[in-house]
Fold this protein.
Amino acid sequence: MDQNIIKEEIREYIKKSIIKDESSVIENDTPLISGGIIDSISTLKMVDFIEKKYSIEFQPHEVDRENLNSVDLIAQFILSKK
């Protein structure tokens, strides 16, 4: 599983499904939760997307800023679960 492909897929999901603006620029280190780009409902939707897309399961304590605040962190988390 390639980390760069995961990052691109996550960025595309955020642009299409959360902010609904494909022209937006989301960098790998853009703060998603602390920057207000995604809220709690969007976070849960993204977790659902990630679980289905990558066949992983989040534990309740893993749904937090430490794992989901940037594309880099999300990709690292996904790879750690594989």
Remarks:
- The mean pLDDT is 95.
- The chain has one domain: 3-81.
- The chain has four helices and no strands.
